[in-house]
Design brief:
With 209 residues, the protein is α/β, with parallel strands linked by helices. 30% of the residues lie in helices and 21% in strands. Helix 2 packs parallel to helix 4 and helix 6 runs antiparallel to helix 7.
């Protein structure tokens, strides 16, 4: 992935509760840099209830290696309160599904105004690993984000992933300030990393620096 990360090939399913077929095709083009169709790629309109065990039983029959739910908020019933533990019930069922099938389940979930995870803390508690996206910079043509592990689970916390999105697709970009900061050995190295961060991105707060 992105020319840097080894991935395991296998069957994947996206449960799209938000965007529809055309947006899915656009995202596929960005990710793969390819306009051609993927063999056996299908898009089926339907509805499923992630709070029902029968839904997960059906998914278990598909032999998946990756299941993406986009997004948790729109996948839940319209009368569900995101501040109650009921909202995290689907994540708990997904955990049991993973133990049963060894399929990775990825939930897309939106942030609150403070930049944290929206809704009940039970969503985070029921998740094994959590990543968040931080804005780096944005122009009319290019948007840069950083994918940061916010909850690493039992394994070592992975390094952030720098992502650049443009009309040419999705790719990784090198963050010189981040590399200098990570390898800093002296106070001068730290100062240089801070200067690079301020020169190459939005002005950060004193606390974040």
């Amino acid at each position: 992935w992105l020319g840097e990360y080894v991935v395991q090939k296998g069957k994947a399913l996206i449960l799209d509760f938000e965007d529809g077929r055309e947006e899915f095709k656009r995202r596929k083009r960005f990710i793969t840099h390819d306009d051609t169709d993927i063999p056996e790629l299908g898009y089926k309109y339907g509805a499923c209830d992630l709070l029902k065990q029968s839904t997960w039983d059906k998914l278990a029959e598909l032999g998946l290696l990756l299941l993406v739910v986009d997004a948790l908020g729109t996948a839940m019933p319209s009368d569900a309160d995101e501040n109650t533990t009921q909202f995290a019930a689907a994540v708990k069922l997904a955990g049991k599904f993973t133990e049963r099938t060894e399929c990775t389940v990825l939930f897309v979930h939106h942030a609150n105004k403070a930049g944290g995870m929206r809704g009940t803390s039970a969503i985070r508690d029921q998740s094994d690993v959590a990543f968040k996206f931080e804005a780096v910079s944005e122009t009319d043509d290019v948007k840069r984000m950083r994918m940061v592990c916010d909850k690493p689970g039992p394994q070592k916390k992975p390094a952030p992933v720098n992502l650049e999105l443009s009309d040419t697709g999705l790719r990784a970009f090198r963050d010189e300030a981040q590399q200098v900061g990570r390898n800093a050995e002296t106070s001068e190295d730290v100062q240089e990393a801070i200067r690079l961060a301020l020169a190459n991105g939005p002005i950060e707060t004193k606390k974040k620096i």
